[in-house]
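Hello again,

I reread your note about wanting to compare the complex against the isolated chains. To keep things tidy I'm splitting this into two emails, and this first one only covers the full assembly. Below are the input lines as submitted, including protein chains and any nucleic acid or small-molecule components. They are followed by the predicted structure of everything together. The single-chain runs will come separately.
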Amino acid sequence: MTDRYFLLVLLSGVKQVIDLGGAKLRNRFMSASGCFGYGKEFAKVMDLNTLGAIVVKGLSLKPWPGNKGVRVAETPAGMLNAIGLENPGVDYFIDHYLPFLKAKDIPIVVNIVGHSLDEYIQVARRLEKTGVEALELNISCPNVKEGGIAFGTSPTKAFSVVKAVREQSTLPLWVKLSPNVTDIVEIACAVKDAGADALTLINTLTGMVIDITTGKPLLGNVTGGLSGPAIRPIAIRMVYQVATKVDLPIIGVGGISSLSDALEFFMAGASAVQVGAALFRDPLLLERLPKELEDYLKQRQLSIEEVIGLARRSV
Amino acid sequence: MTDRYFLLVLLSGVKQVIDLGGAKLRNRFMSASGCFGYGKEFAKVMDLNTLGAIVVKGLSLKPWPGNKGVRVAETPAGMLNAIGLENPGVDYFIDHYLPFLKAKDIPIVVNIVGHSLDEYIQVARRLEKTGVEALELNISCPNVKEGGIAFGTSPTKAFSVVKAVREQSTLPLWVKLSPNVTDIVEIACAVKDAGADALTLINTLTGMVIDITTGKPLLGNVTGGLSGPAIRPIAIRMVYQVATKVDLPIIGVGGISSLSDALEFFMAGASAVQVGAALFRDPLLLERLPKELEDYLKQRQLSIEEVIGLARRSV
Amino acid sequence: MNEYLLPVIEHKEIAPDIFSLYLKGNLKNYEPGQFVQVEVSESLEPFLRRPISICEIDKKGIRLVYRTKGRGTKLLANKLASRDQNNYGKTYLRIFGPLGHGFPIIGNKATLIGGGIGVPPLLGLAKKMWQQGMKITALLGFNTKENAILIDEFKNYAEVLIATLDGSLGHRGLVTELITDNATPVYACGPEALLRALERFNLTGYYSLERRMACGIGVCLGCNITVLTKDKKELRQRVCYDGPVFPLGFVKWGEAGD
Amino acid sequence: MNEYLLPVIEHKEIAPDIFSLYLKGNLKNYEPGQFVQVEVSESLEPFLRRPISICEIDKKGIRLVYRTKGRGTKLLANKLASRDQNNYGKTYLRIFGPLGHGFPIIGNKATLIGGGIGVPPLLGLAKKMWQQGMKITALLGFNTKENAILIDEFKNYAEVLIATLDGSLGHRGLVTELITDNATPVYACGPEALLRALERFNLTGYYSLERRMACGIGVCLGCNITVLTKDKKELRQRVCYDGPVFPLGFVKWGEAGD
Ligand SMILES: Cc1cc2nc3c(=O)[nH]c(=O)nc-3n(C[C@H](O)[C@H](O)[C@H](O)COP(=O)(O)OP(=O)(O)OC[C@H]3O[C@@H](n4cnc5c(N)ncnc54)[C@H](O)[C@@H]3O)c2cc1C
Ligand SMILES: Cc1cc2nc3c(=O)[nH]c(=O)nc-3n(C[C@H](O)[C@H](O)[C@H](O)COP(=O)(O)OP(=O)(O)OC[C@H]3O[C@@H](n4cnc5c(N)ncnc54)[C@H](O)[C@@H]3O)c2cc1C
Ligand SMILES: Cc1cc2nc3c(=O)[nH]c(=O)nc-3n(C[C@H](O)[C@H](O)[C@H](O)COP(=O)(O)O)c2cc1C
Ligand SMILES: Cc1cc2nc3c(=O)[nH]c(=O)nc-3n(C[C@H](O)[C@H](O)[C@H](O)COP(=O)(O)O)c2cc1C
Ligand code: FES
Ligand code: FES
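Full-complex prediction:
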């Protein structure tokens, strides 16, 4: 049956449609925010239409200059980044990048950031009726009004920002959680109660590297976000824990560098995945993955639904 | 001056003495608990007397069988363990391992675990007047009485267990913190207020691996503790944050596999370091490190005091 | 046990995905059945060493026979295969060992029972027993003729009987079907199913176990199993340090397997 | 730009810790000054690729000249050095490129100014300029004679002047001391100190920058710098994508350096 389904899809030329919290994806593989720019550069590297959706770099209300000094550092099987959410602002995105992406005919998910509750709301409003497929709320950034503590590390703050955006936006709302918390399930529950349609797990872990030749922190910002294969076991654990306790679709992200890695996320309970840092090592990875998954499923006569959450059902 | 000091030490044959929260160490390199057993096996591999101190595998009141199923899994630049604190109990240790270690004439630090507040106290009491140099309280294990939540993830619980042991023990008290928390500084402060003499940072991060060939979690215990180079950026960040805010000596641990890695910890503010998982890859590592540090300092005409905390002073 | 950095002097694919590797050198106090921890990569990923049994040690050097199962062994095989065969002395491999306890040799006859990649460590055992003048029967089981390894070498020391699942070589069926009434003492190495099957026969002897390992030297407790003593008491044992060889029949199965 | 898996056909240490590497193949649309992202290890540690300039492309293949600075380049050099020279075709290297924008060639004369490991990318530029019949002066600076590289090759295309810090070859002192009044336009590559020093002369031309990079293709913003436009407005630019070559004098220094 699975085979016949694939055959039909192939023959009909119809693109698969996957529902993820109200957003429609082409397949289950997306770029991770911040690792794919706004798509223009990658359009020269790969066929963007092989993506399930493109998730763009986080956008704030006004252009944001980001951090000074060194911004990326290699770490064992991973990297730190301290870009500091540099971006040209949501209006610039709408004017300069969105038309290009819309011409491409792929679902567009916009990652949004805010340094206050109000900023989140305004960015979300700007994106109403622009043709984007979903919003992905990055709640890992510091709330400048409340002393720089991230919205995503407190259940009540997370609840308030998600609820506020939920009330002001008609778009499917994905919320991307920070792993730098004692209890990810607690945050996930708060976010669900506030009206999120899906959860993206995980953002980067806070880390640091010291340049022993100078004795100084290597990154201009002192600390940065850890990503890449090194963090995958933590991401898998969080996806598994949240999938077990919270009834929302999950988008898994953190350290995927091959189909096997993606399968771990599906088996842990993710309905779709994003690929970030591994693209810097292997720029064509996202072009290969959808096909590799299809082949894997065909060979084993499996449907993806049987794979999603398998590890939870088999314990 | 530094050179002369080393010369004097070398000529006199007197062992260096380093004070770490009241405990006296021979140098600044120790085994990490759980990665060196109780010393007997490593005595066949290396000269134990090259260690600054030996930190033994966590001990509970009664023998503990640990977890079933697969207990170790490789991860990118690291590993997971789900040993489950298997140990023969503190009395067995005192009778069977301690005499051997005491004959070796190296400072002995005993890592202790408890599944209730009372168990911690009793283990600590058993170790009074046995000749051990310090206790290292592992507060990352689940509090079975209170539903399995780790003592180390709540400031109030951490405070209570440290205070209770502090009142019942005359030994220098190191407390080993869990990194699976939103705010490590908050926990560190609570632990200091409760009377800790030093902090060991960090224990493992909770992670998980799924065996995609079976679709099941690979570890019998489902989740395990992530260690090795992969977690070093997180450990460095936490040492740096705590050293900046809390006035207690810090023992750094997490992903050290070379002198450069250890130097990062010293520069972040650690006064001593422990080596864990890297010993499984490089069993002679701890024998080399003290000498390598000496050479490094001599070459640069530096004292270790100038190195400790350097990254904090230079920002 | 010790750390060695040894030149690779031979690396051959002796069956699909099975490689025979010779390192120049010798290991002090080697007993057949012991293993070494092999560093598969200079870089920190793969992170852990791989436990590989010592197949034999002779004048040429230390021989390991390994199967490329997952990422680590595949990287190792690729690295070694990309070297020029005539120039191997330039490539070094880091090993730590010998580790664990080998097979205790008792009496004047023995039956060696090996399955698949469990066959190699028995070769060194066969040679040592032969040197001691023992009468040895080797029962070797493989999936197919194509996967069969080391048969000619075993013939130097033992009477060899082969079983393959598909009958393409020797007896068609399981290697256990070759076991005779007077097989005791047996020395076995192979997949868990084979070892467990042996317990259903009326045999005494030894078997060698495999468990996932981190340290390989007895300190991490990653490889612990429960063993039943003769008076039926349960005892925790480390496969890497107290084993990998245990007396046949005393392992409590099913609690720490993959 | 594209992903290539190319056979290594030559790997030589041309000065202490500096290696010349030839890969069999060609890169479509290469401009001198562009670079490639090199995978230094099959394993996930080191994790990132290393940006290395294209030194030249000729019939033999693609030439990279690199210095072993840290862990990644050292692992790469060790790997390649352990291969038999006569058998290189078996070893492959993965590169992605060509990346960034090269040097715009204008006019009929030029002064190329290179310092240390900044010299190699200027060789391909010299060749291209020479092919276009331009008159080229190359001012090359090194620490000592021992570190001097590619001088004979430059002589094929340019008048070459050398400076060494210790005077062991050519002028004793800084390469900037060789700059003459009519040097414009200049094309420079080398340490930041050299590039900044050039701004104190009355020169126009281009310089090539280095920044720590993750993606190398313009998506991570890891390598961003601020550039001043002609009307003194600040503009954010990615060294990997908008550069690495920028018009001399327009970089705002000191905010994103190491
Ligand atoms: C005492 C002992 C002796 C052995 N002798 C041999 C031998 O002579 N020849 C041989 O081919 N194999 C032998 N093995 C099995 C061999 O260790 C594994 O096949 C190998 O570790 C798999 O590594 P990988 O890189 O291929 O797989 P990966 O999947 O990359 O391994 C990931 C991790 O799991 C561990 N692992 C995976 N499978 C096994 C397994 N079956 N047993 C133990 N650890 C495993 C690895 O060591 C590594 O830590 C022995 C195992 C033990 C315990
Ligand atoms: C556009 C460009 C072109 C270059 N061309 C050449 C060349 O032709 N020949 C050559 O020898 N070198 C060149 N470099 C510098 C080269 O990229 C670094 O020396 C190299 O990345 C260092 O890696 P490592 O493994 O030796 O050091 P590690 O310390 O292991 O590197 C760790 C991380 O830091 C980065 N890094 C460290 N130092 C530098 C640096 N100076 N510049 C950029 N990234 C750095 C590495 O890329 C890596 O991500 C170029 C750099 C850039 C940006
Ligand atoms: C350079 C870089 C920039 C990033 N920028 C953003 C961002 O703007 N918004 C966001 O939500 N996540 C951002 N992330 C986090 C990634 O989207 C992803 O959650 C994280 O890197 C883990 O996935 P990975 O291991 O596959 O990279 C960024 C990550 C990197 C490496
Ligand atoms: C196999 C294993 C067992 C461990 N057992 C203990 C333990 O009993 N008590 C404890 O406090 N920490 C234990 N740890 C944690 C280590 O002491 C150390 O904090 C951690 O592994 C990080 O350091 P590393 O990256 O150098 O291994 C264990 C770690 C490993 C890998
Ligand atoms: S593998 Fe560590 S105790 Fe056996
Ligand atoms: S390195 Fe990623 S944008 Fe330049």
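For quick reference: Residues B 74; C 35, 46, 48, 50-53, 65-67, 69-73, 117, 120-121, 210-213, 244 surround flavin-adenine dinucleotide (ligand 1) (CB under 6 Å).

B.
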